[in-house]
Write a structure and sequence with these properties.
318 residues; alpha+beta; Uridine Diphospho-n-acetylenolpyruvylglucosamine Reductase, domain 2; Uridine Diphospho-n-acetylenolpyruvylglucosamine Reductase, domain 3; Uridine Diphospho-n-acetylenolpyruvylglucosamine Reductase, domain 1; five-stranded antiparallel beta sheet
Amino acid sequence: MLRQIRDLAPMASIPTSRGRLTENRPLNDLTWLRVGGPADYLFQPADTEDLQAFLRDLPADTPVFPMGVGSNLIVRDGGLRAVVIRLGRGFNGIAIDGNTVTAGAAALDAHVARKAADAGVDLTFLRTIPGSVGGAVRMNAGCYGSYTADVLQKASIVTRQGEIKDLTPEDLNFRYRQTDLPEGAVLISATFEGPKGDPAELHARMAAQLKKRDETQPTKDRSAGSTFRNPAGFSSTGKADDVHDLKAWKVIDDAGMRGATKGGAQMSPKHSNFLINTGDATAADLEGLGEEVRKKVYETSGITLEWEIMRVGDPLIE
């Protein structure tokens, strides 16, 4: 395979900033699956004001892709024709006031859960969710029957025009693993309200959740969490309708695809809804295996699995 020829936007059209701007930046080391080609540019803003100015002055026809810690993402091997914006220090603070927890979009979900538990606030469902707060809001992340939609009070964004806006849960229109965000907007913080709890009991609950996760999921392998959404009916907040609840792993098993491989990609033998990089997978291997699973599941059950992992970018040119 040949590396894709890339016609980058001229540097003259990219605004100056106080943050870090890297041209033609490979993204493979920024994703949990460790695959993917380069972004045209990677921008890491110094602070909110720097992000506002950058987005405001960036040409309107230049695509923007906000990226968290890459825990639920496949970047294709040809890379991403966009300015990728990745928040870091300055966007990972956590403040707690009573039952209210405000966290920067770059704060890790697990860290927010632990800090909240220290203060006697129950956001324990976040403890086992890989990724950061921005991704949790964007994907209405959840587990153990609780979802981001259940606790979110507001989310703050910087719009593509460089303005700060607060969005309500109604604005976000939460659905199962989906929300509505303005095109090109970058989430910068979220405010949650959780029920009170005893700190010791909350930490004990999280320890039990971690133990259960490690027993049932391939946590030591390179994966991006659940590969496909459960093929079920869900309420507007993302909660499953138990009457129609099906599990993606079950239909994958029934299709005989547990442990299936393609190149360096594999459907985990431990949990068949986890797509893993065994060491030398390409993005094409991973996405291709996922599509083979979807085809086989449809052939055997008539169910069309929907990707939960986001796939972005261009394939390599053969």
